Amino acid sequence: MSGIKTDPDGPIRIGGRSLADQLAQRTHVLVAETVHAVRTDVPFYRSLPEEAIRNDVTAIVRRNLELFIAMLRSAREPNPGEVAELRDSAGRRAEELVPLAEVLHAYHLGIQHWWAAISELATEGDGQALARAGRQLHTYLLAATSAVVAGYGSDHGSAGDDDAARRALLMALSAGSDPAGTADRVGLTLARLYWVAAIHVDPHPDESAAEVDTAVAERRKVRRLQRELDNVGRDKALCAVTSSGGTALIPIVDSDPAEDNWEGSPQYAQLRRNLLDLERAIGAAVVVAVSAAAPSRVPGALQEAREVLEVARCHGHRSGLFRLRDVPVEYQLTRPSAAHAVLANLLSPLDAQEPILRTLEAFVDAGYDRAAAAAALHVHPNTVLYRLRKLATLTGLDVSSPRDLVRVTAALAARRSGTTAT
C-alpha cells in the first residue's frame, strides 16, 4: 500500500448501529465459527495438533478480527505496524513448512465468513453501507495478504543471515576450530564463557495422535524449543536442535561466574530455573545436562555434557537438569575398565528374568525405596519384596546387605552402560 487512506464518509452503520460495535459484541462467536470453518475446509489445518488450533490459530483469527474492527472504527487502512503480528505469525507457519496457499486459503475463508455475518446484520436501505463494508473488507484482505506474503518471504532475510552466522560459530566452538576467527568472519562476539547444554526431548503426545501430521507436530516442537533457548540466551544462544533434542551454547554475559566455580552462582541458579521450565513450554519431558566452559574448552565440556545426559537417561531419569556432580558414581561406573564386564556379569542370571531385572532397576532408581519402586511399576510393595528376594536367590546378591547393595548398584550401572553402547 502506498499510504494510509481514510474513508471520507466515516464509520459504517448497518441496521442503524455501528458495524464495528456489532462485530465487537460477537467477537467470541465469530472467532469460534471462523476457526471451525478453517479447520473443516482447509485440508492442511485438519492435520494440525489440537494445541495449535486452540492456541496459534485461534489467536491469529482473533487478532485479524480485532484489527478489522479497529479499521472500521477509525475508517482507515491498517498501517504496517498494526499488521506486524500477522506477518510474524506467517513467518512461524513458514518455519513449520505450512504451505503458503493453505494459509492464504484460511484468510480468504475468514473474510468470506465475516462478510456473511455482516450481510445478516443488514436491513432494507443498507445497500450503500454494505457496499462500503465490502470495500473495507477487501482493503483489509489486501493488507493481511501482503503481511502474510512478507512473513513467508524477504522479511526473513536478515534473520536467516543471523541464523547462519550462529550455526557457523556453534560448529567452530564445538570442533575447537578457530572460534575467534569464525566469530570475526560472521560478525558475532565471542563470549567469555558459555553454558554448555546437551538436551534430550521426549515425543510430544501430538506426535503419536492418529489424526495429527507427525511432521507438523515435530516441527512445532522444534520451533518451541528453539524459541525457548533463544529466550534463555537473550537471542544469542547457539543451538542445533531436532525434535529429540540437541545441543546449545548459551553466552555468559556477566563478569561472574568463574569457569571453575559456577555451580553455586546466581547465574547458574537462574539458568537452572529457565532450563527446567523448558518442559512446560514444549509440552514434553526434557532432560538437560549442563556445564560451563571458555571457548577453547567447549569441545571437552560438550562431550562431558553428552555423556552425563546419557548416564542420567540410562539410569531412569526422564526429566530434570544434571551436572556431573549429580551423577558422579553412575558416571564413573559406566567408564570402560577391566572390572566393567565382571560387574555386568553379576546380573547375568537375570537375563531370562525380565520382571526381576525391571524391579531391580526401579528399586535402584527410586533410591532403594520399595514403596516408590512399587508405585513406578504399578505393583504391590510385597511384589517388589518378593522379587528382590528372588534376585538374591538367583545372583547371591542381597539388597538388604550394605555390601551387596553397593555391588548391585555398580553391576546395574555397568550393565546399563553396556546395553546403551550396543
From TrEMBL:
Source organism superkingdom: Bacteria
Signal peptide: none
UniProt protein name: PucR family transcriptional regulator
Listed InterPro entries: CdaR-like_regulators (IPR051448), PucR_C-HTH_dom (IPR025736), PucR_C-HTH_sf (IPR042070), RsbRD_N_dom (IPR025751)
Annotated Gene3D superfamilies: PucR C-terminal helix-turn-helix domain
Domain RsbT co-antagonist protein RsbRD N-terminal: 30-167
Record domain PucR C-terminal helix-turn-helix: where: 357-414
Pfam families named in the record: HTH_30, RsbRD_N
